[in-house]
Structures are given as structure tokens and as C-alpha cells.
Records
---
Amino acid sequence: MRLIAIIDKELKQLIRDPKTIVMVLLMPIFLTILFGYGYSGRSKFPVAILNEDRGGCGYELVRKLINSEDFDVEYYVRTFDEGVELVKEGDVYATLVIPSDFTECLLVGKSTYVQVIYDASSPTVAQSIMQLVGVIVLKYQEWASSRFGTFSIKPTFYSVYGPTVTRIENFMPPLMGTLLQLVPTSLISVSICRERERGTFEQFIMTPVSHFEVILGKFVAYFVATISDAVLTIATAAILFNVQFRGSLLAILLLSSIFLASSLALGLLLSVLSKNQLQAYQASIFVFVPAMLFSGMFVPVRLLSNVAEVIAYAMPIYYYIDAYKAVAMKGLPLSVVTSDVVVIVAFTAAFFLASMRMLKLRVE
Amino acid sequence: MFAVEARGLTKRFGEFTAVDHIDLLVESGRIFGLLGPNGAGKTTTIRMITGLLKPTEGYVRVYGMDVLKNRRSVLRMIGYMPQRSSLYDDLTVEENLYLYTMLYDFSRQEAKRRTEELLKEFFLDKFRDRLVGNLSGGMKRRLALAITLVHDPKLLILDEPTVGVDPPLRRQFWERFRQLVSKGKTILVTTHYMDEAENCDEIALISHGRMIASGTPEAIKRRAFGGELIEVLLDREPPCDPPEFAKIISVNGRKVRLLVDDYGGRSAQLMDFLRERGFKILEMRPVRVSLEDAFIRLMGERS
Ligand SMILES: Nc1ncnc2c1ncn2[C@@H]1O[C@H](COP(=O)(O)OP(=O)(O)OP(=O)(O)O)[C@@H](O)[C@H]1O
Ligand SMILES: [Mg+2]
């Protein structure tokens, strides 16, 4: 069968290309180690801050937090709900809320408070956070009292149930997202233009191959080759960093394969549209950078500017990371993330059809 | 029905016209040679005939079918060998052949059988497991030719099949072409080599995208000089007046070259003419003009 023959040929070529080994075997291991140590090296608690204070005293307190040994201020949020969301999603362990009349109260020597939205799902972490916040607030109170007179600042607590993740697991969603976007897209993006550049296409398309067979053949072969990226990443994370997966491995792999498929389909489209390999590479990097930036990897999408938020929603990686967190970290069934899956599949289908449409079986 | 019928074939790349209203008629069962200097538009013409390029104007039919509209059926009738090597360097000889047999819808067993057959036929058996990237130029061309024959096509379109091939192998190639034609296949071939062109049943000369001449090699030569050349060696230097049916091309001592419209018909007439005037003819023979001479002359006329 023609399709089988094409898949077979592509796989042989992939196996014989040293670049594939690097991308498919070394890259996931290397990136997992990089991400793993990057995250585990940080012993501080990630927190967010909601500073509603209209004066300067709130900022003084924030500075104390930034300089503390125990906290990493990772995000500044604008509303209480955002602060709650971050804790719920496990992006931070706590959000500190400084009230709007903080400075006012201090200046007139009136007692005030600092609110801590914390993740109550892991009691030990919650306890240490309460203690540590208490210490910092107390220190600040002593310092402030010496200037403005005696008063008290009381920490109040607001508990939220987060995803019960350990610190280390937080690196998995961005890692999986990055790998399963970068590797498949960049690998497959040169596949068609390489054939054009080497001249092999000229003979290949004189056989009765159809658009569908060319696209699907490459797609399947690259899928088989790159699925190991997901498997290896999960294995490396589990072995080296003892990452626990709350969801079923099968569900995680299935979800990851769907995202992998969308990355491949996108790469194929880039390959069809590019004139040469260089252009295809550049195009895949051009797509990768915003995918990485706006996927919620560094900054949760909710905290992005409006424009960036729209870009994030236009990329499959956003839906994958969202679904991955639910399935792998919260242990929810796939049915919960149906909408994410549907969106990713829709993207895949669109990219796939567009590549078939745009592919020219000519030499122009 | 013609194996290839191209009418008004034109290809423009932007402002530049690479092929300019070329008509080609290739009769079935022949070797048709397409000749022309570098950049003449041979490859562009061939690519339009194979349907790999869309003509700006004109159309191509292969065995009566439009190459763009009936692409699928046409592809099965054509065996194509591109000018530039189109083989997969990272696959072995056998894998390349097997891939193409499979692409032409052979069943697995048939594909295996056909691959073996071609490996033997083209003496590639010993190199079957060698990566194509490590083959010599000649072997690559042999494999490329084998691939064009995978599906037993009626029409072979070969773009400079013997470039970089040594003389013995070139001869083998041409023997095989003859053999294929004797089995009823048609071959459209481009070449730079004049000796190869002489072997064609019919040739077309193109230059700067235009057809300059076409026909059998003999006809083209005749056309180039407007007739045939006769060389006569006389017993003494000739007086100047030639007969009205001949033109003097050159006089070199007692050796005279004359141009006539037809050697067979005019040689006797010329003999009589000279004898009447008291000359002794020591030698008389037709001059073999080379195709190269003819082409140079034809191209010179154009420019
Ligand atoms: N894709 C293209 N874009 C622009 N110009 C082109 C393109 N393909 C060919 N040409 C030009 O068209 C002309 C004819 O090229 P073509 O390859 O058909 O010549 P050729 O007769 O096959 O030459 P050669 O004997 O060197 O193979 C050349 O001047 C070439 O530069
Ligand atoms: Mg050429």
C-alpha cells in the first residue's frame, strides 16, 4: 500500500538522521533535567501579592517580602479573585493581600491587617506559610511602630483548596508543553521543503501519490518517532525527580498525543508554506516563542494583557497545559477536559486540512 | 495518436520567457531528442510535459490525455528521470527501488519480485545494501533509470540521462534505449552530446526557449545547409562557372565542394557536366556534415 510505503520510508529516513536522535531521545531527557533542577533548586515558597494600598507603607511591606529568605514573589495580581485563582491552580502557595487603607491606618496609629489566601490542601506547607508570614508582619510592625506609634497588624487567613501538588511537579506542565510543541513542529517543518531542496520531490510526485497520502504518511511517521518525547519526559521526571502523577498514565499519554498531533500538523503546514528548510526552521521558532511566552508557562494567562491573552487562546498549547494540570496533577478524568481536547483536535484538523490544501504536487 | 503532443507551450518566470510557444509532436515508438545549449529551456519544457510545471500558455497531451486534467492516468504511462539526481541518498539501492515499486501500487510480493528483477537487470545486485549517497555517479544513473522503468511505462522522459556517465556506460544506455523502443516504448530524451543526438529518430533543437529546427538528423543537416555537400577531386584546377544546379562552397586547389539539393540525383548530372568540360574526376563523394556543424549554422542564422 502506498501509504504504508511512505510511512516506512519516512521512518527509515528519520532513524538514519542523527538530528532525530538528538531531538527525540536526548532533548526530553536534557530538558527534564534542566527544568527539574531549575525548580527544585528553589527552596522558597512562590507567592503572589495583591497590593491595594493607596499609600507607600504597603510597598515597604512588599519589599520585606521580596527580600525575605522564604518567599519568592512570582506574581502581582490586580483583584482578589485572581489571587484566589492562582492558589487554586497551584501556581503559588499563597497570595498576600494588603488592604487599601493600610498606609492610612498606620499613619493614624490604627490597627490594621494583612490577609493571606493560602492553600489549605497541604497542611504542613500551610502551617509554615502562616508562621513565616506572621514573622515578617511582626517584624514590620515593630519597625513601623517605632515610627508611627503603637498599633498592631494582624495577619488574617483565607483558606483555599489548591491542587495538592508538591513544588517539583509544577515544572511538568510547562516542560511537557514546551517539548511537545518544539520538537515535533521543528522536526517535521523541514520535511517537505527538504525534499524539494534535495530534488527528491521531483521523482516522488511523479508517482500516483495523493495530497492526502503525502501529508498523512509524513504525519504518521513523525508521530511514531516523536511520541517517545512524551514517554521519555514522563519517565525521566518520575525516575530522577520522583514526580507523582495523580491521573492515569494512559490518560496523560492520550492527552499528550493529541497535543503532539496538533504540533505535527502545524509543522506540516509550515513545511508546505515554506520555500526552503531555513525558512521552515525560522517559521517554527517564530511560532514557538509566543507559544512558550503566552501559554501560561511563565505567567498565568489570566494575568496577561488583553492582546497577549487573545494570542494565548489562539494556541493549542494553552489548552494542553490547562488539560494537563487537570488530568495529571489533579487526577481528574479526561471527560472533565473535553472542551480543551475538542479545541486541540479542531486546531489539528484545521492545520491538517490546510496543509493538504496548500501542498502543491509540482515543482514551481 | 502521438505519444506527446504539445502545442504553443510557453513558460514565463516573471518577465523572463523560458519557453516560447514550442510545438512538439512525438510519435509513438521513437527516440525523440531535445537538444539545445545550457539554459535553452529543455528542462522547463520537459517539466511541462510531465505536468510538474503548469504552462503559462499552451497544453500537453500524452497519448491523447491532458497531463494536468488526467494527471493520475498520465502518471502511470510516464517514466521520468529528472536532470538532477532525485534518489533518496539516505536509503539503500534496494530500498529506493522497493519504495518506488510500492508507490506504483504493486502488492508487497510483486514489489519484491519487481525490485529483484530490476536489481539484476541493471547489475545493481551487488550494491543493493549500499546507501545511495555512497554510490558512484554512474551507478546512481543506472539506479535512476531502473526506477523510471518500475511500472513499465509506455513513455520514458529522460532529462540528460547520460550526464556524468562514462562512454562505455553511455553506450550501454543507448543500446538499452533502442531495445526499449523496439519493444514499443517511446523515449523523449534531452542531451548535450551530438553523437547521442545522431542516434535519435527525430530531434528538435531549441535555443532561448524557441524551436529552431526539428526533424530527422539527416533532414536537419540538409536544412542547415540548404542541401547536401559533394566533394570532387579533379585532375586540374577548375574554372569558376558551376552548373546552375550546384553552388560552389569552397575551392581548395583541385578539391572543390559543391552544394546540391540532393546528392543521389545530382551526382550523375554533375559528372556529366564536368566530363563535358574535359575534366577527369579522380574522386567524388558526399560530405558528411556533422549535426554539430548544422546546429552551429542554424543557431548562427538566428542570431
Ligand atoms: N523556477 C525558475 N525561475 C526562474 N527562472 C527559471 C526557473 N527555472 C528555469 N529558469 C530559467 O529558465 C531558463 C531555462 O532553464 P532550463 O533549466 O529549462 O534550461 P535547460 O535547457 O534545461 O538548461 P541545461 O542544459 O543547463 O539543463 C534558464 O535561463 C533558467 O535560468
Ligand atoms: Mg536542463
Note: Chain A has two domains: 2-39+171-358, 42-160.
---
Amino acid sequence: MSDDILVLVEHRAGTVLDPTFELLGRARALAAETGGQAIAVVLGSGVDPLVATLGAADRVIAVDDPAFAEFSPSSYQAALVPIVRDRSPRLVLVANTGPGMDVASGLSAATGLALAAYATGVALEGGAPVVTCQLYAGKIDARVRFADGRGIATVVAGSFPVESGMAAGSPPVERLGPPATDGRIRFKALLAPEAGDVDITRETVLVSVGRGVGEQENLELVEELATALGGAVSVSRPLADAGWLPRSRQVGKSGLKVKPRLYLALGISGAPEHLEGMRGADLIIAVNTDPRAPIFSVAHYGAVADLLDVAQALTRRLAG
Amino acid sequence: MQRELPVIKVDGVTELEHAVVEGVDISGHWNRMFTQRSITEYPTEAMDWITGLEGGESLRNCYQCGKCVPVCPVNHVGDYGPRKLNAKVIRGNRLIDDPDLWLCTTCGNCYRVCPKEVNPIQFMPAIREQAVLEGNIPDELSDVFRNLQRTGNPMGESPRKRADWIAGAGVEIPVISQLDRPVDVLWYVSDYTSYHPRGQDAARAMARVLTALGVDFAILGPEERSDGDSARLAGETGLFELLAEQNIKAFSRYEFKRLVVMDPHAYNAFRNRYPALGWEGEVLHYTQFLAPLVDGMRFLSRVELDVTYHDPCYLGRNNGEYDAPRRLLEAIPGIRLAEMPHNRANGYCCGGGGGGMWLDGTVAGHVSERLSERRVREAVATVGTDGTGVLSVACPYEPSRFEDAVKSTGNDGRLVVRDIIELLDQAMQPPAA
Amino acid sequence: MEFIVLLKQVPDLAEELEIDADGTDLARDWLSYVTSEWDEYALEEALQLRDQAGGSVTCLALDTGSVDELLATCLARGADRVVKVGSFERQPASHVAAAAFAAALRDMPHHLVLTGVQAIDDLDGQVGPLVATLLDLPHVSVVTHIAVGPDGRTATVHQEYAGGVVAELEVDLPATLGVQTSRETPRYAPVSRVRQLMKTMEVGSVEVSADGGAGLVIEAMSVPEVSATAEMIAGSPDAIAERIAAILAERGIGKAAVR
Ligand SMILES: Cc1cc2nc3c(=O)[nH]c(=O)nc-3n(C[C@H](O)[C@H](O)[C@H](O)COP(=O)(O)OP(=O)(O)OC[C@H]3O[C@@H](n4cnc5c(N)ncnc54)[C@H](O)[C@@H]3O)c2cc1C
Ligand code: SF4
Ligand code: SF4
């Protein structure tokens, strides 16, 4: 039994991913409270460059083996189970990503540690973890404890600041081997998304325009803003009907349902048929000249202004 | 040409041995008479299959006279009509995976003129039902079916919120489960009236008008479910029956004299379909209920507007009520009523019937413009020339469809869309200061 | 090939969720239930795979007393068999569900076990990897593409990562997969057919003894605050742009954050 906080390091193509840094930052703060250590567990092949970025950890456990060159759920689990059993940490933090889901539930079943999923907050009370979980698609928050005071939490990306886990440092590295592996799942290839027209359901930033844009020529200004934001342009139905952009860009009842991190609605009135397609977006900012446009009833932020003025100003602001 | 002349057969082809016409010998291969083409060369399976379906029978009766084609609203914006459907079927097309299956709005205008009583209102749902059973169903439509099944309304909104529109009506609207006594009128509010913002405007207006008239009424509130008629016409008979069971259960729980409905599709279902499913009673469209009461209406404002009226297919042509809405409009002081060229029995469909409400994307690829857009142009030409036009309606599908069409045809500012009940309500309020 | 699909019902989010008097659970009186969205994808994939590779699809759901419609819907979509597992008052925690499914599967031939990658009420983790571990099967989550190898001994699957990147993985069968999406929209189950099946279908059942729990103590549930109306930004276009830029920076949204 220990008061350590274990963090499973997720990495791809030689880089540690942001959610891991979020977890490391949080683990460090928690370990300071429990009196244990924040331990980063990294499974990989030729892990030194990865380890070099894990300065925020108090200690790194590294399993370095060609079998871990790429992610395999079965091998990861085979290697992790004994590590978790041996250390018996207070808390294991895993990012709620594909690999994270693969590993965390399996680890729970194999070790008997309880699991709290979809966590957005992790704190300590009387030395034991208390986890806030987001259930029912974000409509309910649940505060849970582990019955025996220790457990695993899978944490939703974006719950903690990335920077807090990016401290410099050279924690001691404990190398384990020979690792247990399980070759029943074999990595074949990493496939980049197809080029071609945009899939708006996958974009994290959508600059969405409606009839308020006025003329087709004005779309250029909107495209510029989308580029500046690293996102894509989507439209309300009238613009797709007009053929200004392909129907694959249309949001709404007869278009696509989207859930980007940012939905910037420019000159869209917010007809229910439109809202149906986008109200699930994480952050909705609406710009409309009509202060009573229904879009404002679903928006988190709104501005009553001319969309062209705001689009240009924002593009300038992001460039400058 | 004389029939008794000797005929010979060469290589299976029949021709005259000697053909002489007005002294000119035209014997030769070019005058060969080919054997008569027989209708039995057409595959009959598709037609047999469709006429074997309950409701599919009449499609065979078509004799290709073509009367239906010019009156079909879809033909105005595309290439359609029962005649063309019949022609496809006799060539072996079961229509099951033909886009034509989803274009008919079951508006009934072709049936009105067809000498052979070919009836798409019957055969379309019958064929569509088979398509649905075979899994051949546009995604946008199956989404709506799922919503109807889950929540009892096409939008997938919470059934508990069905009466949320009550807030803001400014009058008390009793929910029958809380009244504990019989009422004169059970007001069936319907889907779009309950949930769509523009429909809710009409619902609130209706509540005010009923209250002003001292009508003893109540609504079902969260117990109300979609009438499901458009789902039935779009091929989902089972879903229609499921919803009907739920509504009939609710109807039977309470005592009321008559059912007054806002939605012509609900009117059609309750009047023509529910009896076979076990519920029978007096059903009135709200215009029918209110028209006899006009003398008791106290109009406090003049509504100086040029108004035309769009006959909903399922109130007008398919259920024969043309006068009640017009009587209400004529009673409103100030209104100048003008008819569009397509009116009454020849009214032009808004495109929303028969599931069309939920097939916009599917239909879009096969028509040059939406029916609602065409209808709006007609309304603008009738009453919208000096910017004071009103397209009045009596079906909750229409405000959203027509208002969208007003925008997309560039007629913002020329025409507004109002339910008749909204105009009545406006006239019964004191003039705006 | 024997395809198994594990399904469950979850509260319909069309309803506004409320918390019960204890403050530790949903107020369930008014809830209606629907099949978990991702389980529907799993079923669709299973049906597609069966139609390609041959075999049969068996759908399993825990018997909570109200799964007949779910199972009839599975049959209406084309499943070959449906089975109720155990006997529960209501949908139990994922660990308990997984133990029950694993117990049922021990006596049931299975090559590919598909389930939704997650469900909206998976407080104690996803059922797929729990079942896999209990049965010692390999498991892949967030699967967006499945192809069964010609010899039926392996499957090639895509696991989806953020930003549209996917990993292609080869899995030895039998295996379990957590399905993220199906190649086609889950097919519509006509109500006419479901209603008929409710009367005529044969439902298998498996007794299992399921005990244990999630090992979690729920201290409180709450409905997160969401402001009904937007916070309005006033000022000149430049001032508005400035404020929007600040909001985005705060949340790490925008090009700078996409590293
Ligand atoms: C069956 C059906 C299905 C439908 N499906 C869809 C769908 O999938 N997707 C969809 O989007 N719609 C759909 N619609 C259409 C929908 O009802 C609306 O008509 C449509 O969404 C309106 O688009 P809009 O907001 O761009 O246009 P409008 O409603 O015309 O709104 C334009 C807005 O721009 C504002 N504006 C004008 N000028 C400026 C300016 N200079 N700066 C800032 N703001 C300005 C105006 O105030 C107004 O609010 C559907 C309709 C029906 C009936
Ligand atoms: S009017 Fe009737 S008979 Fe004439 S072509 Fe049309 S469907 Fe056929
Ligand atoms: S019912 Fe109406 S839409 Fe259908 S074919 Fe006849 S005229 Fe055309």
C-alpha cells in the first residue's frame, strides 16, 4: 500500500500527449497532499526522449521494449497489471481516451481496484480521493469516493491545465524488465485523416455562417477567420441550398449534427432546425445584429454586431 | 390494302407476296408486317405485387389519360404524377428503391380529377410500408420515426414539456388530469403547436380566443401524443397504431363532449382512422368549432391587411372543409381577403403532407424548388405586391415551412405568415397603443 | 462466426434529468429509457459483419424486467437470437453487468463480442473491457471499422484517436470490441414489426449469480449550473474580437492550442 499517484503516460509518434501532462500536473498536486509520489508510468520502445519530458513527475517507471513501440491494448494491460499490484497506489490516473478506456476498465477488473469514469475533477478528502464524474452526456455531475479508499479514475481531456504537468526536472527513472506482453492485439499502422473536403463533424472549431453573411463574396472573410482559428466553415441551410458551400457543410436537422469545442455562429438566427444540429457544442459564441435572435438562447456568449465587422476584427486580432 | 391478297411468311416475318398500291408495285422487304406487340411482354410482377398490397389496388386502373399530371404539385417543380408512376410500375419497377416513392405528399389533387379513381393516398402508404419493412427508408425520415416512438413528437422533445408553451399565454389553460370534472371541449394541441416557437404562438392565441369566448376547455398536456397521421402516410402503420393506442387511452380516461384540434392531420386521423381503432367521437378542426361562434366574438381592433388563405390539403381537399376558415377571416374587421389562383379543391400543397415535412433533404435533389416556395410566390403575387400581404394558414406545419420559403424566395418584407387564430386573437385584443 | 452483442437501456436525455430526494441518484419516476446509442452501433456492425462473413448474431441484455422491447427491436433489425441474462431490479453498475455477461458467455459460443464503446451512465467504467478481462479476451475500445480476416481467426479494426487519426490494429479472435460508430446508420426497426415480434418472439434466458458491486460510494449527484442566456459582449467590433480572443485563449481553443 502506498500513497502514490500513478499516471499512465499516453504517447504517439514519439510525443507525450497533452492529456498526460494534465494528469501529471494534477498528480503532483495530489501527491504533495498525500505525502506520496507522483509516478509516471511509460511503456514504449526507446523511451528516453519521452522520459525527458516528464519532469513534473517525482519518479518515472519505464518499460522499454520493442514490444511497446506502438500501442497495443493487450500488451499494455499485461505490463500494467503487475506494476499496479506491486505499488498499490492511492490513485491511478488514466486519460479518458481510446487507449485509456482500453486499459483502465481492464485494470480495474484485473486488480479489483474500483474505477471512476468520465472524471472532470479529482481531489482528496481525509487522504482519500474524491472524484467528480460527468454522467449522462454532461447533464449530471456525480461525486464519488472509492469504497476502500483507493482506485482508478479516467479523466476527460481538458479537465486540468496542460502547463501544470510540463515542469522541467529529471526525476529518477526506474526501469522494469523483462516486461510481460500479450501479443493478441498487434499494431499495424497509424492512418492520418483523409484529405479532401472537410468533415465538419470532426472539426474542433467551426465558424458557422448563415444568411446574415449577405453576399457569397463575403464568405472569403469568414474563410479567413476559420483559417486563423484552425477550424472550418459550416453553414445554415439557406447557404447550402444556394450552393455556396457543399451540403456536407450544412449543420442542422437536414444537415449534420456537430459537437465542436467552439461553434462560432455568425448571422444565424437559430431556427430550431438549426439548433438541433449544434446545441451540443462545448462553447457557442453567437454574433447577430438582432438582439432577440433565438441563437442567443443557446449561446454561451453573444454579441449584437455586424458579423463582417467582428469577423475581420477577430481575424486581425488572431493574426496580430 | 386488300385483305384477301396472298400472304407469305419469310424468316418468320409476315408480308404480302405482291403489294401493289395505286398501280405501283411496292412489294419488297420494307413492307414486312411484324407480329403484333403484346402487352404480355411487359413484366407484370411489379404491378401484381403492388396491387396485391392492401391499398395498392387502384394503381392498375390507370389508363394513362394524363389528367393527373398537370394538377400534381410535384410535377410543377419536377417530373411526377400517378400516370408516370403507373408507367414505371408496368415496366417492372416496384418503386421500393425509387426516389419517386418519397415525392408524393398525398395531397390528393390527382385523385380529385382521375376518371379511374387511382388513389395515391392509399397506394403510396402501402408501398412505403413495404419499403420501411425492407429497411429502404431515408435517414431523415427514420430519425423522425424514432423520435415519434421515443417521445411522441417528431422533434424528439421531452413529452413532459409538451405543455410548457402555456407560460406566456396570459390566460389560464387547464390540464384535464388536474380538473377532475368533465369539460365541453378537449383541445388537442398537436405537435408543432406544442413545441415549435411559431406553433406555440398559435397555441397561445387559441387559448386567449377560447377564454374570451368563455369556452369550457382543457388540454391533455403531457399525456398528449402525436396523432401520427403523417407517419402513417409515410409508411409507418405500426407507429401510427402505437401512438393511436396511447392517445385513445388518454381520451378514454376523461369525459368531454368534443375534441377540437389545431392540426388538420390530427383531424384526419381522429375522424377517419381512430374509429377503426376503437375511438369514436365528435372531432372538429378549430376553424369549424369557432366559425359558428363569430357573432359572439368581440373585436376590439381592426386588422387592416391584405390576406390570402392557403387551404391545408388535409382540411380542404381531403376532408372537404373550405368555408369555416374563410368565414372566420371574413368576420375579422379590416381584413381584405383575396384568393390565390390555386384555392379550395384545387389548393396547392405546401409540401409538408404525407411525410414531406420530414423529407426535405430527400426531395431536394428531385425538384427545382420546394412546393412551399412556389406557394409563397403565388401568395406574394396575390397579396404581397405592396408589402402588406399576409399568407394565412390553418395547419401548424405551415408557418415554419412558409416563413422559411418567404426568406429563401427573397420575399422578406413583402409577406408574413399567420395562422388564422393569430389574426383572430389580434383583432380581439385592444389596438396596440 | 458467432457474433454476440451486449446491449442496455439508458435514460432518455430528451427528458430533463432531476436528482432524487437523497441527492445520490436520478429521480427515476419520470424517466423513459432508450437503447444506449453506442450499443445500437454495435448491433448494426454485427449485422453487417454477419451478412458478409456468415454466422449468426445473438443479442444479450440483462433482464431488468423491461427489456422485451429492446430485444424485439434487435430481432426486427435482423438479429438471429435474443437472450435475457440474470434477473435485476434495474440496470446494475458496469462491474456487476460485466460479471453477469461474462458468466453467460462462458457457456455460449462467441468469436466476436461487440458492445457500445461507452454508455452515458457508465460511472464505474465501460462494460466491454471489463467483460474482456473477466473472460481473458483481448479488447479494443473506440472502434470505427471492423473487418474479419478470411480465416475467421483475426479481425482488423480501427481505433480512433483525436483529430481523425486512427490506428489499425489486428486482433486475435475471440475478442471483444467497443464500437464507436457503425459503417451505416443503425437500420430502422419498423414499429409494425417490433409490435408483432413482442407477441411472437422466443427469448432465451440464462441464469447467473451476480453479486459484488462497483466499489464506489456516490456521495452526491447534481445538475451542473448552465446559464440559460448568453453572456452578452458589448462594445466595438474590436472590443468584441478582443473579448472573444480572450475567451478562446482561456479555454485553449484556436490554432495556438492545436499543437
Ligand atoms: C423541414 C425543415 C428542415 C430544415 N433543416 C435545416 C437545417 O438542417 N439547417 C438549417 O440551418 N436550417 C434548416 N431549416 C431552415 C430553418 O428553418 C431556417 O430557415 C434557417 O436555419 C435559417 O437560416 P439562417 O439562420 O441562416 O437565416 P435567417 O433566419 O434569415 O437568419 C439570418 C440572421 O442573420 C442576422 N443578420 C443579418 N444581417 C446580419 C449581419 N450583417 N451581421 C450579423 N447578423 C446578421 C439576422 O438578424 C438573422 O438573425 C429547415 C427548415 C425546415 C422547414
Ligand atoms: S388521371 Fe388517373 S387514369 Fe389518368 S393518367 Fe392519371 S392516374 Fe392514370
Ligand atoms: S397526391 Fe398530390 S403529390 Fe401525390 S401524386 Fe397526387 S397530386 Fe401528386
Note: The first strand of chain C starts at residue 2 and ends at 7.
